[in-house]
Structures are given as structure tokens and as C-alpha cells.
Design a protein that fits this description.
The complex is a heterodimer of chains A (152) and B (788).
Chain A lengths: L1 E6 L2 E6 L6 H8 L18 E4 L2 E4 L12 E3 L12 H8 L9 H14 L5 H7 L11 H12 L2
Helix pairs in contact in A: 2-5
Chain B lengths: L13 H5 L15 E7 L5 E7 L1 H4 L4 E6 L35 E2 L5 E7 L2 H8 L3 E6 L6 H4 L15 E8 L1 H9 L3 E12 L8 E7 L4 E6 L4 H12 L7 E4 L15 H13 L3 E4 L2 H7 L3 E12 L5 E13 L27 E9 L13 H19 L3 H8 L12 E2 L5 E2 L4 H12 L1 H13 L3 E10 L7 H6 L8 E7 L5 E5 L8 H13 L6 E4 L17 H28 L6 E4 L2 E4 L5 E3 H9 L12 E7 L8 E11 L4 E12 L6 H20 L30 E6 L16 H18 L13 H12 L1
Parallel strand pairs in B: 1-12, 10-11, 14-15, 20-21, 27-28
Antiparallel strand pairs in B: 1-5, 2-4, 2-6, 3-5, 7-15, 8-13, 9-10, 9-12, 13-14, 16-17, 18-26, 19-20, 19-25, 22-23, 23-24, 26-27
Helix pairs in contact in B: 9-18, 14-15, 15-16, 17-18
Classes of the chains: A alpha+beta (152), B alpha+beta (788).
Chain lengths: 152, 788
């Protein structure tokens, strides 16, 4: 089936199998490998991206459901080579180690700050509880989001 | 010390990881690449009557289908460490077949592989492979597997024994227990865990017929070891014709140390089909094929005299190693567990007797901490239990038994009863700092007040020690390791004074590109951006033993330190020549060699350029500055610390809430405090995970009942409080950096502290023991039973 979507500001039209997950489409067809796959049950959040202004796990959508969608992935978050404050925050506060969960964690944080520009510690933990990080113990991720909130 | 060492320099690698431009193995796409899907057993134990691949072979897009028959002439993956029976008999070591032909021995055992043009086609065709099984009886528990009449995992290996093993003085220990004023005894189940790196394992095999050359891209913690094992022991390939590349890896925690059958599979099959093959585990595959951790059944007894001094420790353990022997599996319950039973205490007699056992389960190997968490758990649970039984404060009981401080220089190392010599330690200092940080006396008063209000607060301790910086080759060789455990580092000074460092250590989250660059830049007096740290490619790096056992800085960093010495020595010779001075008259500081007492100097980049433009070099002076070092440590390193957990238990629901966690660790000298804090925090999170949430479970038919993230609970952001970490510094006396390693400390220390805290909370209700994980139903049941 043919599907057209705008990803990080550029329009892409592709032929995809109807069963293709959005995350597979991004990774395999559009070569946007910054979005990761960590599980097969929509539990880990590594594939979180922004579709039409909402953070979603891109393994829960079919590519064909996203015809006409406006999508932002981790590759589209920085503008003009300047890191987004959330990206800066993760670096500043050591909010990542292996980096595998990081793109999804950053996109989920983006959603949180859109809705709540000044979240508390507890609100951040609640908002990110759909994203696994096995490396950091989350403390520095919370600090990274707080840093981003203060520096946005 | 320069101006970078000791600073929390922000990480070099974060730019690519925060922008989605890292390159993990599954991100790599090669021309003409095919995709593999593995047909795995859904049964835990069954004889294979037949495998019918006809339908799969004719399915859309299928390139080939292979079964165990195709691999009959290939021996399989061996173990990397030989631990023999007590009587000297060689351990039982069945090789792990790449695809099994005779019988499957655990759920997830690999039976066939479909290789197709796309991942979807491979998966579709795999559905068409028909395997006819004859089901066999199943055993999944180590202790059950030892009983007469238990199902036999390997038909030719009696009683499911891998080996039996002991360490320590049995006679003295039995006497110490028999004559003790008080004996504390615990039956401990240290449950099976799944490491769960968030990046699933991923491999690409690429055979280039034109060059007769193989390339394996792999999510591995140690590419050289994979190459060595695969070439020398599995596929018999010429090592110089094989390149193994492992660049960005999304976490390991031990599970990516080992040589996995799928690595050999994609390399071997790539040659058969003449095209690259990618295999990436689905999470459900990871759950049943990544090596698991822990899984000990233990009886532990500790004797005390009337002053609360430990008289002896006796341990009996059945260690479940699963259906096959993973690379390091045999040394984990033995040389990384039995040897740590001294803990931080002056225990005068220790004995461990252990059975290593085959079962119809996924292989068990090192998971973060690897043996040391199991040792620490039993010792520290015994300490808090004994303290309660003897009515002594648990901190006080530890203080009465701590080994006194020793720095390994002015005071000798501490010889344990279980074969190790600790390098340096100041256990009381870590305890005192932890007590002060948490506000211990106030906390006990708060606990009393809370109890009056019907609230159950608990305080739990853990004073752990670990053996890291793995490992002195001569020592591990004498204990059965089939490899040395040194590390290499090559430093190439480029003509413009830029520096490339090729390390055999492997970063999969540890931040070596930053820490190692700090070390090199400071030593050479050059900016960090002039240093590139290269890891994870056998074509670039001379040799490497990889990263595990908290060894990267202690062993890999020491190798870099050795090469830095050689670089500076050669640089001084060139500078002396350029300055027409004697080497002895030069000082090296701030990146330049200066003739002492003058303003004549040559900067590092000037010397570097001269090294490669040697127009007037004297006879005998070689051009270039490039040095390689192999560093073999003189001893293990012994980080230690005290962790204190504070929990509140809701007696109506059994819910355990971790309120505070204080970790005071001593990992020797520190290069990047930010990274060390991060390693400890992340380690603690995994230790807390074992205590409260995680458990890998098999049902009676051998089905793996915790095979998704909906069934296997791991800590999420809202499960944890902020982990309060700080460090003392007792330098390692035997490596050039004075460092000990910090990767596993948190995981080793945390688990018993949390469980001890929960039991402490519930003692007024009569609860004296809890089995991990402390799930609400389990805790609630324990409360009901205690009050019944």
C-alpha cells in the first residue's frame, strides 16, 4: 500500500506491506535508525516518537495508519545543528549511559514538557514510567528533564 | 593529577546518542543483506524425531533453511573456564550446538534457521517448518535435578552434574559452628534473573568470497574473545581472515560477554549463501536465549561467640547452570562466589561446598556482579538476621567484625580464608559515613515513633566487598580459565600531535570515550578533543579481553597508562634531540618538554611532527611515536562499601516502598565522578530490582512464564527514589592508576540492604525471613503466616 507522511519536515511516499509497523517503516524504509526497538510488547518505550503532536510508541501503529501524518523522530529534534534543550539536559546531567533507550526517553520527555513546562520530580517519574532505562536508575534522567525545563 | 582527572567532564559520546546517530548493530545495512529467523523449541525437553523444511524452503523470498543436520560436523560452542570435580575428574562439558539435531534441552533451544530476503519473509517461512517432537520429562530446579531418578538433561552425563566443588577448611568450619555461642541459619533462594539490556542481541555475518574474508558485526562486550572462540574452537576459521566489529552496544550487564551460537551461525551460513545475513533477537527470544543470572539454592550458617564475633561460615549451594555451559558460567558460582565469602569480616573459618547442575533451562552465566551478589546476599542477610537474634544493633555487629583498615602499602594486604588477598580496605570508614549520611540514630527513633502509629519502617544494611579488575592471568589460569585476562592499549601519536588510542576494553554505556580521553589528555597535556578513543574492532585494536567484572579502568586503563609512559619516554628522547639537551635535563609539563632552568622548550605537537619528519634524527633513533602495551594485573581489585536502605511496608497490602537508599562506596581513585555516580546509581537500581521486582520463572513443564516485559517486572522511573551516592577513596596499591572499578558495586551492595530493611520493618509482626522478589502477595502472605 502507498503511504505518504512528513517526517522531520520532509515528505516521504513509500510502498509498504500493510502489516509494516511504523517503527519498521522509519528504520527499514526511511533509514531513520535513531528510533529503536527494545521489545515486542509495547512495554519498553525505546521506539517513542511524536506523531501529530503526540508522543506514541511507534511499534503500536501500522505505517499505513499514518498516511498524512506529521512525524518527528529523534533525528528531527535538534534544529540548525543546535541540540534541543532536552538533548542538552540529558548530556548535562548524565541522563544516559548506553544510549539505546535515550531517543525514546527524550521524545517522551518532550511530550511531558509540552503539557507541563515545570514538572515535579514525581510528575517526571510518572510521565516516563512507560520507558525502560536499564543503565541509569532514572535519577539523572529526572534531573535531565528538570534541566531542560529550566533552560527551555 | 592534571586538570581533567577528577573532573565530571561531560561525555563525548552523548552527542550521537542524544541525536539518534549512534550505530548499533541492527542499524547497519549491508548490500544484498538477507535476514535470519530462528525456529526455536517451544518445549523444555524433547527428542527431535524429524524436521520438515520443504514448505519453508519453497516459501516467498526464502534463500535457504538450515537444520541441526547441517551443523553435525561442527562441534558447538565450548565453555571458557574449566572447573573440575573435587576428585579431579574433568568437568562435564557438552558443547552448545549451533542448531540442535538430537534433542532440545530448554524452551528456546534453536532447531532450524530460515534465511530470506526480508525479515517478514523469514518469519513467515519459519512458521512452515514442521518439527516432530517426542516430549521428555523436565527438570528446572538445581536441587531437584540432583535427586535420583531426575530427568537427564544430557543423556551421557549422570546426575545432571557439571561438577562438585569446595573451598576453605571444612574441619575448622564445622568446629567453629559446633562450638559457637549462637548460630544463625538461613535457607536462601537467590532467584534467577534476566539481565535485560534494552538493545536485543544482534549479529550480521558477512563473508567476502573475493578476499576469502569474514566480518561479524556483533552486539558484544568483547569482540576479540568472540573471534578467538569462534575461530579456534567452533568453526575452525583462520583468525587473520576474520574481523569482529562491535561498536555501539546498548547495554550488556554481562549478557553480551559470551560467544553465542547465533554469531557462529550467521558467519558460517553467510559463506554458504554468499550473502550477508542479519539476525536480531526479538525480545521474547532474548528472554529465553540471553544467558540468565544467579539461580542459587543455598543453606548458610554463621556461628558467633558470646561477644558477637563470627566464628565460622558454612555454605552449601546448588547452582543452576542451565542446559548448556555458557562462556564464563562455571567460574561464577565458584571463583567469583566462594572466594568472596570472607566479606568485610575477620571470619576465621569458612567452607563452601557446591554442586553445579544442568537443568532444562536457559544457560546461566555472569549477570552484573556475577557470583559476588550471591555471596554478599547470604553474608549480609546472615548479619542482619544474627543481629536481630542476638539483640545487637546490625551496624554494631558489623563493626565488631570488620577487618581493620589496611592500605596495602604500609600494612600488608589481607589474606582471606578463601584464597584471595584483599588489596586495601577501610570498611569502618564507609560504614561510619553511611550512618552519618542517613542519620541513623534519628532514623531509629523515627522507626519507633512510626511503629506506635502502626506504620512499619525498616532499616537494612549491606557491607559488601567484591573482586574486580579481572584478572591476574596466572591466578585465573591456575583456577581453570582458558584465557589470560590482561588488557591491551595501543597509542598512536599522529604527526600533528593528535592522538588515537586503541583500547581492548569495550564501552557499552560506561563512557570510556570520555574517561579514557581524560586520562590520556591529562597525561600528555593536550586538549581532550585531540584524543580519540577507539574500541570494538579487531582490525584496529591489537587485542582485547573486553569489558566485564568492572575491569575497564583498572586493567584497560592501566594498559593505557603503560603506553602513555612509553609515549612520554620516546617524546622526551626526540625533544632532547631537538633541544640539543640531555633527556635527564628535561621536564615534561603542560604538554611541553622544557630544559630545566631555561625557557627552551618543545611542545607535544612539535615533537610529534618531528617524529614523522625525521630529517636529522641521529643514528639508531626510530621515527614515529606509537606504542602498545599489554597490562596483566598483579591482583584483583577489591572495591567495597556500605549501603543502607529505608523502606516502609504496608501490612494491609504487603507493598514495600523504598523510601531512601544511601550508598557509600570505595572504588579507589576516581577519574570522572559523574560517571562513577551514574554507574553506582544504575547498579543500585538493578540490585533493588532483584530485591523487589525481578524473577525469571519456569513452570513445572519447563515453560518460561516470565518471557515478556509484561511478566518480568523491572524497575521503572516511578519505582525508585533518588539514590544517594557518595564515595570514600582508598587507592588500589597495585595498579598505576590506583583505581578499583565501579560497574558492579551498586548491584552487589543493594539487594540485601533492601531485603534486610523489609524484614526489619516487619519484625514486630513476627516476620523473620522473606524470599525475593518482595512482591506484595509474598510479603502479605509472610505477614499472615507470622501472625497466625
Amino acid at each position: 500500500m502507498q503511504v505518504t507522511m512528513t517526517v522531520n519536515g520532509a515528505s516521504f511516499t513509500s510502498d509498504v506491506e500493510s502489516r509494516t509497523l511504523l517503527v519498521q517503516h522509519l528504520r527499514d524504509n526511511l533509514n531513520l535508525t535513531g528510533t529503536h526497538v527494545g521489545c515486542d510488547t509495547s512495554s519498553c518505550g525505546a521506539c517513542t516518537i511524536v506523531v501529530n503532536g503526540e508522543a506514541v510508541k511507534s511499534c503500536t501503529l501500522l505505517a499505513v495508519q499514518c498516511n498524512g501524518a506529521e512525524i518527528t523522530t529523534i533525528e528531527g529534534l535538534a534544529s540548525n545543528n543546535a541540540l534541543h534543550p532536552i538533548q542538552e539536559g540529558f548530556r548535562e546531567k548524565h541522563g544516559l549511559q548506553c544510549g539505546f533507550c535515550t531517543p525514546g526517553m527524550i521524545m517522551a520527555s518532550w511530550q511531558l514538557l509540552e503539557r507541563n513546562p515545570n514538572p515535579s520530580d514525581g510528575e517526571i517519574r510518572h510521565a516516563l514510567e512507560g520507558n525502560f532505562c536499564r543503565c541509569t536508575g532514572y535519577d539523572n534522567i529526572v534531573k535531565a528533564v528538570q534541566w531542560a525545563a529550566q533552560n527551555s | 593529577m592534571g586538570k581533567l582527572i577528577g573532573e565530571s567532564v561531560k561525555r563525548v559520546e552523548d552527542r550521537r546518542f542524544t541525536t539518534g546517530t549512534g550505530q548499533y548493530t541492527d542499524d547497519i545495512v549491508l548490500p544484498r543483506m538477507t535476514h535470519a529467523h530462528i525456529v526455536r523449541s517451544h518445549l523444555a525437553h524433547a527428542r527431535i524425531r524429524s524436521v520438515n523444511t520443504a514448505a519453508a524452503k519453497s516459501a516467498d523470498g526464502v534463500v535457504t533453511v538450515l537444520t541441526g543436520e547441517d551443523f553435525k560436523d561442527i562441534g558447538g560452542v565450548p565453555c571458557g573456564w574449566q572447573v573440575d570435580f573435587k576428585d579431579g575428574t574433568t568437568m562435564h562439558e557438552p558443547k552448545h550446538p549451533i542448531l540442535v539435531a538430537d534433542k532440545v534441552r530448554h524452551v528456546g533451544d534453536a532447531v532450524a534457521v530460515v534465511i530470506a530476503e526480508t525479515k517478514g519473509q523469514a518469519r513467515d517461512a519459519a512458521e512452515l517448518v514442521e518439527v516432530d517432537y517426542e516430549e521428555l520429562p523436565v527438570v528446572t530446579d538445581a536441587t531437584e535435578a540432583l535427586k535420583a531418578g531426575a530427568p537427564q538433561v544430557h543423556d551421557d552425563l549422570p546426575n545432571n552434574m557439571v561438577f562438585d566443588w569446595e573451598l576453605g577448611d571444612q574441619g575448622a568450619t564445622d568446629t567453629g559452628i559446633a562450638n559457637a555461642h549462637h548460630v544463625t541459619k538461613l535457607e536462601i533462594r537467590n532467584q534467577r534473573l534476566v539481565p535485560n539490556a534494552i538493545e536485543p542481541r544482534s549479529y550480521i555475518g558477512d563473508y567476502d568470497a573475493a578476499r576469502d574474508f569474514y566480518t561479524l558485526y556483533t552486539s558484544s562486550q568483547n569482540p576479540h574473545v568472540i573471534r578467538l572462540l569462534m575461530c579456534a574452537f567452533v568453526l575452525e576459521l583462520p583468525e587473520h581472515k576474520v574481523r569482529v566489529v562491535s561498536r555501539d552496544v546498548g547495554g550488556g550487564f554481562g549478557s553480551k560477554i559470551y560467544h553465542y551460537t547465533e554469531e557462529a551461525l550467521v558467519i558460517w551460513a553467510s559463506k554458504q549463501i554468499g550473502r550477508p545475513i542479519k539476525w536480531t533477537a526479538e525480545r521474547s527470544e532474548s528472554f529465553v536465549t540471553d544467558a540468565h543470572g544467579r539461580d542459587h539454592n543455598t543453606t548458610a550458617e554463621m556461628g558467633f561467640d558470646d561477644a558477637g564475633k563470627i566464628t565460622a561460615l558454612r555454605v552449601r549451594t546448588d547452582a543452576n547452570l542451565g542446559a548448556y555451559l555458557s562462556t564464563f558460567s562455571t567460574c561464577i558460582p565458584t571463583y567469583l562466589h566462594g572466594t568472596l565469602l570472607q566479606g568485610q569480616y575477620t571470619t576465621p573459618a569458612i567452607h563452601i561446598s557446591l554442586n553445579a547442575v544442568f537443568t532444562n533451562t536457559t544457560a546461566v552465566d555472569a549477570y552484573r556482579g556475577a557470583g559476588r551478589p550471591e555471596a554478599t546476599y547470604l553474608i549480609e542477610r546472615l548479619m542482619d538476621t544474627a543481629a536481630a537474634e542476638m539483640n545487637i544493633d546490625p551496624a554494631e555487629l558489623r563493626k565488631r567484625n570488620f577487618i581493620p583498615p589496611f592500605d596495602g602499602v604500609n600494612q600488608p594486604g589481607y589474606q582471606t580464608q578463601v584464597a584471595l588477598q584483599y588489596d586495601s580496605g577501610n570498611y569502618i570508614a564507609a560504614m561510619e559515613k553511611a550512618l552519618e549520611t542517613i542519620g541513623y540514630q534519628d532514623l531509629r527513633r523515627e522507626q519507633e515513633e512510626a511503629r506506635k502509629q502502626g506504620r512499619y519502617l525498616g532499616i537494612g544494611f549491606s557491607s559488601y566487598i567484591e573482586a574486580c579488575g579481572i584478572a591476574p592471568s596466572a591466578v585465573v589460569g591456575s583456577l581453570g580459565a582458558r584465557a589470560g585476562l590482561f588488557e591491551s592499549a595501543n597509542i598512536r601519536v599522529q604527526p600533528t600531535g593528535k592522538v588515537s588510542v586503541y583500547t581492548g576494553s569495550h564501552s557499552h554505556g560506561q563512557g570510556h570515550e570520555t574517561t579514557f580521553a581524560q586520562l590520556v589528555a591529562d597525561n600528555l597535556g593536550i586538549p581532550m578533543e585531540n584524543v580519540e578513543i577507539v574500541h570494538g574492532d579487531t582490525e584496529q585494536i591489537p587485542f582485547g579481553m573486553g569489558t566485564y567484572g568492572s575491569r575497564s579502568l583498572a586493567v584497560g586503563g592501566s594498559a593505557i597508562s603503560r603506553s602513555l609512559d612509553k609515549v612520554k619516554e620516546k617524546g622526551a628522547k626526540i625533544a632532547a634531540h631537538l633541544l640539543e639537551a640531555s633527556v635527564d635535563d628535561l621536564d615534561f609539563a603542560d604538554g611541553k618538554w622544557t630544559v630545566r632552568g631555561t625557557d627552551k622548550s618543545k611542545a607535544f605537537d612539535e615533537v610529534s611532527l618531528a617524529a614523522y619528519v625525521p630529517h636529522n634524527f641521529p643514528e639508531g633513533m626510530e621515527p614515529g611515536i606509537e606504542f602498545n602495551s599489554f597490562y596483566d594485573p598483579a591482583n584483583f581489585t577489591y572495591p567495597f562499601g556500605t549501603h543502607i536502605a529505608v523502606v516502609e511496608v504496608d501490612p494491609d497490602t504487603g507493598t514495600v516502598t523504598l523510601q531512601r537508599f544511601v550508598a557509600v562506596d570505595d572504588v579507589g581513585n576516581i577519574i570522572n565522578p559523574m560517571i562513577v555516580d551514574g554507574q553506582i546509581q544504575g547498579g543500585v537500581a538493578q540490585g533493588v530490582g532483584q530485591a523487589l521486582l525481578e524473577s525469571a520463572n519456569y513452570d513445572e513443564s519447563g515453560q518460561f512464564s516470565t518471557g515478556t516485559y509484561m511478566d518480568y517486572a523491572m524497575p521503572r522511573a516511578d519505582d525508585l527514589p533518588s539514590i544517594e551516592v557518595s564515595q570514600n577513596v582508598t587507592p588500589c596499591p597495585h595498579n598505576p592508576l590506583g583505581v578499583k572499578g565501579c560497574g558492579e558495586a551498586g548491584t552487589i551492595g543493594a539487594t540485601p540492604a533492601v531485603v534486610n530493611a523489609a524484614i526489619d520493618a516487619l519484625r514486630p509482626l513476627g516476620v523473620t525471613d522473606l524470599e525475593m522478589p518482595l512482591s506484595p502477595p509474598r510479603v502479605w502472605s509472610a505477614i499472615q503466616q507470622a501472625s497466625a
